[in-house]
């Protein structure tokens, strides 16, 4: 697998990142370990988790499961030095049982946030579950507007100074906040984010819809002109909706996208996928892998081994400039 430079750090991360959100809950231990081993054997190194994965699948799940599973895998496999390990803090719940059945807005209101104490305690707890003395990348999972940025950033700087995290990143963040974060880092000499983890796929969110998590044209423009930040694209196949019209009709991940632009892009995608003899999900990943400005690392989230292998097969799809241009040009609104 090819690698890309993370921001301008000199660090090489694999062009596909492996999301471990469902490992230890919806994906059992044996399948998770097979995926992780296969991914490293295929040249992958960019492993993504969080301190809240995944509390939601079933009663009794806490959010510790994914980090703990990765910890066991690292302990047994001894491959820590082959992994560029990313985790996050900020979206953990103190009482997952109390949050079950609540709306997404109600759940978000219960997130732990990014106060200095939470961030400091968060890294120590994650390191314990992961069984390692450092992570390579530590994200603020959800931008927290109720904590002064200076407080979060100085706590993150302490964590980096202590060697507990090598780099920091931000997720679910608006562009103006990213700019403010970078200015503060510059002013105080704090480590600035090298990665921004946002929801990003081939479909574009509906024109006029404001959203802190989904990349929009302004954010793309910002990232193009700030190449010290790599875009890590989560939900790159939008939960697999591209291969499955029924899922597309019913899945709430489609809510921000439905409309004429999505229809036009889906038509272009389906047509080109048929011509190339590949699946639409696979073509979306291949298209993301061909994005160079900004550099984009698709962060896949397979639940099963078959889904993992299907995602990895995107590496075998070569698109020429005309294919990329056709997909880029499709849509009902100007980019
Ligand atoms: N920063 C954040 O806020 C944030 C948010 C979400 C995720 N993430 C990270 O990003 C990673 C990926 O996100 P994601 O899980 O949303 O990505 P995704 O790959 O778009 O969605 C994963 C889901 O897509 C379906 N799927 C996967 N491969 C498929 C295939 N080949 N064919 C058909 N369906 C397929 C499965 O759905 P079924 O289970 O229905 O089969 C699977 O659960 C996560 O593991 C996590 O590390 C971060």
TrEMBL record:
SUPFAM superfamilies in UniProt: NAD(P)-linked oxidoreductase
NADP-dependent oxidoreductase domain location: 16-330
GO cellular component terms, semicolon-separated: cytosol
Superkingdom, taxonomy of origin: Bacteria
Pfam families per the UniProt record, alphabetical: Aldo_ket_red
Transmembrane segments: none
Full protein name: Aldo/keto reductase
Organism: Micromonospora inaquosa
